[in-house]
Write a structure and sequence with these properties.
By secondary structure, the protein is an all-alpha fold. It is built from five helices and no strands.
Length: 142
Amino acid sequence: MQLHRLPTRFSPSSLLRTLVAVPLVLAASLSAAQQEPPSAFPLDAAGYLNEELPRMEAAIAARDRSFFHGAMARTVQFTERWGFKVKANPDLAAYPMCTSAVMDYVVVGMCKLTPGDEVCEPGLAPRFDANVKQCRELAAQK
């Protein structure tokens, strides 16, 4: 998968549409599965989110849209490392709360920054928060 540079000037709506398409792109990508056992995924996903969420909140407070370009790239790298592609790593299907939380992270952040955008459905943020909580709880058990 070849990533193209996003233009330096963009509308929040176009970025959100791009972010919504990321899961589809990732599902179609040819990525290598991770070397760690699937049981390590919840701990790694929770760690990733624990590191990213405070940075995202700071970017939102600063109204820094540029943060989300890097956040999207980091999310793509994380998902490629774990082989989110169902056929490449079906064992991650046991952790839907963690995969969903990672995939929704950037979109939820952009929706907090520009809540009126059409892709910002009302149930997205609460569903994301529930998934993060469940993923952290699962990681704590490992």
